[in-house]
Design a protein that fits this description.
Strand content: under 5%
Number of helices: 4
Shape: rod-shaped
Radius of gyration: 23 Å
Structural class: mainly alpha
Distance between the termini: 67 Å
Largest sheet: none
Mean pLDDT: 85
Helix content: over 70%
């Protein structure tokens, strides 16, 4: 395994650490998504506490719930991506121990991880659009209340 190349184990360790960059990016996205989820949950609780107010549209609560679902899906995908990147590191080690019989496994796991991160980013992008829509609705409702009009949607 390491006999012919005494420095070969360093190359293997480097290959095992390469997915760490992806793991760090995934963890950063996951932290951001969890923070966004916490803010949406807080906003949803506030809206539900104000539900007794006369002109609170149910659509605003539904929009916040939709945002929660999108963020939760993104979090699940990011957790799976982290698992794929950890699996990539382990597959590199296993491939070396098994005399390169798993040559495609590390690459397939890494590609799966990257695709999972891409999918999570798409969900987070959709959620960001909904966040802007929710903000616009709140601004319109506030402006309508200030002028005495009935708020739209």
């Amino acid at each position: 395994m390491f006999g012919a190349d005494p420095g070969g184990h360093y190359g293997i360790l480097l290959a095992m650490l390469a997915p760490a960059l992806f793991m760090t990016a995934s963890a950063s996205l996951l932290q951001s998504a969890n923070n966004r989820l916490a803010r949406v949950v807080d906003r949803l609780r506030t809206l539900m506490a104000d539900q007794g107010a006369p002109a609170l549209p149910v659509a605003r609560i539904a929009l916040q719930r939709r945002r929660c679902r999108l963020i939760l899906r993104a979090c699940r995908l990011l957790y799976l991506a982290l698992a794929a990147f950890v699996g990539t590191s382990l597959a590199v080690a296993a491939d070396t121990v098994l005399d390169h019989r798993l040559v495609h496994l590390p690459t397939m796991l890494a590609v799966c991880g990257v695709l999972l991160v891409l999918s999570a980013c798409l969900y987070l992008s959709r959620e960001a659009g909904l966040a802007v829509r929710a903000l616009n609705q709140e601004i319109e409702a506030s402006a309508a209340n200030a002028t005495g009009r009935t708020p739209a949607g």
